[in-house]
Amino acid sequence: MEHRAEEIEEYRFPRVRAVSMDAPWRWLRKGVEDLRAAPGASLFYGAVLAAMGFILGRFVGQAAYELAFVTGFLLVGPFLAMGLYDVSRRRERGERVALGETLLAGRTNAPAIGFYALILALLMAVWIRVSVVVVALFFEGGVPTIDTLLRDIVASESGIVFLLVYLAAGSGFALLVFATSVISLPMLLDRSGMDTLTAMISSFNALRLNLAPMLLWAAIIVVLVGLGFATFYLGLIVALPVIGHATWHAYRETIEPE
Q1: 204 and 179 in contact (C-beta within 8 Å)?
Q2: Contacts of 209 (CB under 8 A, 6+ apart)
Q3: Cα–Cα distance between 42 and 207 in angstroms, integer?
Q4: Using one digit for the tens of pLDDT, what is the confidence trace for 36-72?
Q5: DSSP character for 255?
Q6: What digits encode the pLDDT tens for the residues 212-255?
Q7: What confidence tens digit (pLDDT) does each residue in 162-185 have?
Q8: How many CB atoms lie within 10 A of CB 164?
Q9: Angle between helices 82-93 and 23-37 (to 10 degrees)
Q10: What is the DSSP annotation of 147-189?
């Protein structure tokens, strides 16, 4: 028992480094370099994720749920980019990048990654319910379709209020997910012995210590994803791989090696 207590006392969370305000742009540049170095695997993931976003936003059947799924896409994005993290990791190690191997990247720490995926799924379910409730409060008979949403918000008397309330609720969920996932999933992939809770706490610490650079990084992600949606999902094919690769470099710069 004494030996066990000593082990617990000696345990330390991963050390977080401070980064400068130009770090997010450096991560973005490295993400582009990874995309150019491994275009086949990167664009495959980009195409799959873009198709998934399109399907969720178009074929759910009810406009209120379509809006929830489209906005919730940002919540589950970190988990869906797992293969992209592995592409960047392999490039960093000088290893050959093979698409088939990256598809199974999460198996080295499957329990922790699976548990985090479950957490994201639960958050997504809660967000869908919150989104539908907010919609029901402002629009009789459901929210306008995704295609006409902006026009109907402007035309509606309560449209601007709805937009502000919806953005506030969505930003709260997005900030929670961002705080606990900004570097946690790359860490879980990189360190086979890492547990989910420690990775999430380390991610929060990285945000807390580097608040301004991380908020800038979050804004860059939102803008890139927004541009992807604005180009009828085609821009996501490139934007999502770049974000995924850049997230790996964010992890490597903000967390000291083991």
Answers
A1: yes
A2: 16, 18, 254
A3: 26
A4: 999 999 999 999 988 887 777 666 555 667 777 777 7
A5: B
A6: 999 999 999 989 988 988 898 899 999 999 999 999 999 999 99
A7: 888 888 888 888 888 899 989 999
A8: 10
A9: 80
A10: TTHHHHHHHSTTHHHHHHHHHHHHHHHHHHHHHHHTTHHHHHH
Structural tokens at position 188:
């879980």
- CA distance readout (Å), 236 to 7, 74, 220, 227: 46, 12, 14, 8
Q: Tokens in use for 244?
A: 């995924």
The model's confidence at residue 140, banded by pLDDT at 50, 70 and 90, is low
Of all residues in the chain, what percent carry a pLDDT higher than 90? 49
- Nearest residue to 204 (alpha-carbon basis) of 180, 185, 188: 180
Geometric angle at alpha carbon 122, from 63 and 76, rounded to 5°: 70
Q: Residue 15 gets which letter from DSSP?
A: P
Distances 27 to 39, 118, 159, 249, 250 between C-alpha atoms, Å: 17, 28, 37, 6, 6
Cα 234 versus chain centre, distance: 18
Name the strand (E) or helix (H) holding 204.
helix 196-209
What is the Cα–Cα distance from 111 to 232, expressed in whole angstroms?
36
Tokens of 66: 């379509």
Question: Bridge partners of 255?
Answer: 16
Percent of the chain with pLDDT over 70: 85
* CA separation for the pair 204, 254 (Å, rounded): 11
Query: Helix 39-58 crosses helix 23-37 at what angle (to 10 degrees)?
Result: 110
SS3 39: helix
DSSP state of 22: T
